[in-house]
Amino acid sequence: MALQLGETAPDFEAETTQGRIRFHEWLGNSWAVLFSHPKDFTPVCTTELGYMAKIKPEFDRRGVKIIGLSVDPVDRHEKWAEDIKETQGFAPNFPMIGDPDLAISKAYGMLPASTSGTSEGRTPADNQTVRNVFVIGPDKKIKLVLVYPMTTGRNFDEVLRVIDSMQLTAKHRVATPANWKEGDDVIIAGSVSDEEAKKIYPDGWKSPRPYIRIVPQPRS
Question: Mean pLDDT in the chain?
Fold first, then answer.
């Protein structure tokens, strides 16, 4: 079964390119992005890992940890990193999980629980569903799930945009409209009554309809 928003992200122990971790312990009180790959030495994933390494400072600035996963063993990840550096200009600067027994892929609903065997001999096509992005909050809950086909590279700028929205809306009782980006106006959450809103926003709000209440982005 695929994980649903609001569920606790499954904990696990695994070898990574930066040593063995227990996932929840590694998360600590941070936000995190876990993004998965169906196989090492695949072309689209090579570009994704290089780009993610390039923009890692943007995730650091938001207090978000990054961790990758591929079904192959860690020693293959390390060899792949050399190709990524040579072709993309940046090598992964975050841990890459090895999942050769497919246990994590199955726990996260990316492969059927009935899948048998190991990563050995499996092709990218066999693992094509292992191309997900999970954003996990400090409470260890799943906040976002994106699933991509093998032929479409992921948009990690969009992941940053969504994290900006989620971190803002976790702190303030607002929602963000379509195509919102940092600094744009926001919408007062429907759970806030007009009476409460008047206390929070004494200068009022724009309201093209009674159920749409637009205010500047909170800054505190």
Answer: 94
Same structural domain, 50 and 145: yes
Residue 127 has pLDDT above 90, yes or no: no
Structure tokens at 106: 């199955």
Instruction: Report the CATH number that the domain containing residue 196 is assigned in CATH.
Output: 3.30.1020.10
For residue 201, which amino acid is it? Y
- For residue 83, give its domain range: 13-153
CB 129 within 8 A of CB 111: yes
pLDDT per residue over 186-195, tens digit each? 999 999 999 9
Do residues 147 and 203 both lie within one domain?
no
Edge-first strand listing for the sheet containing 186-188:
174-175, 186-188, 212-215, 206-209
Q: Is 139 a residue of the active site?
A: yes
pLDDT tens track for 68-90: 999 999 999 999 999 999 999 99
Q: With contact defined as beta carbons under 8 Å apart, do 49 and 88 qualify?
A: yes
> Are 65 and 101 in the same domain?
yes
Buried b (16+ CB within 10 A) or exposed e, 8-22: ebbeeebbbbeeebe
User: Is the pLDDT reported for residue 113 higher than 80?
Assistant: no
Spot the catalytic one: 139, 157, 184, 194. 139
- Residue that finishes a domain, picked among 153, 187, 206: 153
**Which residue among the candidates 40, 45, 72, 99 is catalytic per the annotation?**
45
Judge if 58 and 97 occupy the same domain: yes
Q: Are residues 99 and 52 in the same domain?
A: yes
DSSP label at residue 102: -
Count of domains observed in the chain: 2
